[in-house]
Amino acid sequence: MGSTPGDPELLIFDLPEAGRLVCYQWGKADAACTALCVHGLTRNGRDFDFLASALAAGCRVLCPDMPGRGRSDWLKDPAGYNYPAYVATVDFLLRAMNITSLDWIGTSMGGIIGMMMAGVRPGLIQKLVINDIGCLVSAAGIRRIMSNPPAPPCPSLAEAETTLRERCAPFGIHEEAHWQHLFRYGLQERNGCVYPAFDPAILGGYAKDRTKEAEVKDLDLWSLWEPVTKIPVLLIRGSESDILTRATALEMQARHPRLTLREFEHAGHAPALMDASQITMIRDWLKAA
Question: Does some domain include residue 153?
Answer without folding.
Answer: no
